[in-house]
Specification:
single chain, mainly alpha, 95% helix
Length: 118
């Protein structure tokens, strides 16, 4: 158990040191401050308007559900079409081969007749 605590302590210290070093750069510092203010503003809005935020989350969830249903229906449709192709492809190949054989016989017959006429 002691090793896990030391590992966790080391990770936290490393993260803090890395974060502190990163903040030495002015651009990084400005970005962190700007993003912090944005997050703070959004949290403040959420606290002041909880019902509006909850409604927006519900709408987003419904949109995701609808999209997932549509994707599921599309996948089912594609599965049906693939199965139909699996069933019809051998039949089509058989028809093509039969047609090829008939045409070959007619061509061979025509060649044979033209040789006999010569």
């Amino acid at each position: 158990m002691g090793n896990k605590n030391r590992l966790l302590d080391g990770m936290l210290i490393g993260a803090l040191v890395g974060g502190a070093i990163a903040l030495l750069d002015k651009n990084t510092r400005s970005t962190v401050i700007h993003n912090g203010k944005c997050v703070g503003g959004k949290l403040k809005y959420a606290v002041q308007h909880p019902q509006e935020v909850a409604d927006a989350v519900r709408m987003r969830i419904e949109t995701v559900k609808t999209t997932m249903d549509d994707v599921s229906k599309d996948i089912d449709y594609l599965r049906v079409k693939v199965n139909q192709l699996k069933e019809t492809t051998p039949q089509v190949l058989e028809i093509v081969n039969e047609t090829k054989e008939v045409i070959s016989k007619h061509l061979d017959s025509a060649e044979h007749k033209s040789k006999n006429l010569s």
